[in-house]
Write a structure and sequence with these properties.
The protein is mostly beta strands and 61 residues long. Strand 3 (25-27) and strand 4 (35-42) form a beta hairpin. The chain contains no helices and five strands.
């Protein structure tokens, strides 16, 4: 399965994973802040998943 990242620090990059369902995860690009990506759309013909950045708000401590 190929995951294409949309928005955030990984915009325009691709990740090749196993054929298991992908539910999203936290990723970082170099020294950039981590971003949560979630699957937004899966093309049934190609199996390519578009991963959209999930905006998160930092919690106060």
């Amino acid at each position: 399965m190929i995951v294409r990242f949309v928005g955030g620090p990984l915009a325009g990059r691709e990740l090749q994973t196993t054929d298991a369902p992908w539910k999203g995860d936290w990723f970082a690009a170099g020294e950039a802040d981590c971003a949560l990506y979630v699957p937004g759309h899966r093309d049934p013909a190609t199996g390519i998943v578009l991963a959209e950045v999930q905006v998160t708000i930092p919690r106060r401590r």
